[in-house]
What we know:
Blueprint: E1 6-15, H1 21-31, E2 36-43, E3 56-59, H2 71-89, E4 93-97, H3 102-110, E5 116-119, H4 123-130, H5 132-144, E6 147-150, H6 153-162, E7 171-173, E8 197-201, H7 210-217, E9 225-229, H8 235-244, E10 251-254, H9 259-265, E11 271-274, H10 284-291, E12 295-299, H11 302-308, E13 313-315, H12 320-332, H13 334-348, H14 353-368
Parallel strand pairs: 1-2, 1-4, 2-3, 4-5, 5-6, 6-7, 8-9, 8-11, 9-10, 11-12, 12-13
Helix pairs in contact: 1-14, 2-3, 3-5, 4-5, 7-12, 10-13
Amino acid sequence: MTARLLNILTGINRTAAPSSGSLILANDLYGAMPGMCTTFLGRAPVDQAWETAFDQLITLSTTKRPHGPDFAPYVDELTREVRVLVEKIQPNVIHAQYLGFALSLAFTRTAGSIPIIAITHGPEVIVAERSASERVGLNEVAAASAAIVAPTSALADRIDLLTGRRFTDRLTVVPWGIPLSDAQVRDQPSTGTGPLSLVHAGRLDDNKSTITAVEALALTDQPHHLTVIGEGTLREYLEQRAIELGLQDRVHFDPFLPRAELWRRLPNFDAFVFTTRGLEAFGLVLIEAQAHGLLVVYSDLPGVRETLGGAGVPYTPGDPRSLALALDEMGRDSHRRESLNKAALDNARRYDIATTGRQLRELTLRVTS
């Protein structure tokens, strides 16, 4: 007798395309969960090449509105749209992405007896720590959830604090992962001492603190070269700051790259520079860099330290001088670089998307049973 497929309803209230870590993760994750039938709710435009991981992809029609005076009416309207979809799809379980954001609130208010697994990504925790109204939303979804998934114990602890430790027994850590089999390590790793070829990839915003890497290069003893890959609100400012510091020949800016292209380029660099200075939920790009054999120099945050497992070079978050010292040390110490390259590859092997999919699938089966 063939087992019945479990029907999952989930979604992210953003353009249905691989434009961020959470969307790329969702694409990988639901493709790595056999025996599950997944319906994904997203926003137009839809990247048709991206939707293959889902059995059904539905675009939301409610006009998205930011948090503010119009937010409550917007959530009410979105809830009405989601209610119709829930009644039509009849899911066995709902995976509410982003604990407390608009779509997870709509899921919570329409689920009825359908169990909810809330999956946290980090940004919702950042805003809940700053805003009382966001904390209310986060707590509403947490209270309605049978389980709350966080990718690191550091993020789980922060959620536990934000919810007054009322749902500690619902929190579970499921580390994120990547399709490791697709990663390629360059045949000839760099040897010797001297300037490093550095790469930084991610959103160019205040929390990601790319400015730390740019300003650090003005303080290094060696003329390291930095390639910044990504887009964001601070792109123009970062480019201007590099010119002001006389670094236009040492700092190069590239636009956001699809993951396949990013992965193709990663083996060309010596090290990845990670500069986030506030909360980082997991740091998926860190594992991407390590899986390609790159040394990682990182801002010493609890969640990042947990993800890297000690296989990296820490510096004080937001401190360009601390980063400059770390970069120069790596430029002078080829033996340590070689050791850290090997440790990076070993650490990355802990984070295969197949493992993430299996753990979330097992949790989903427990919740639905």
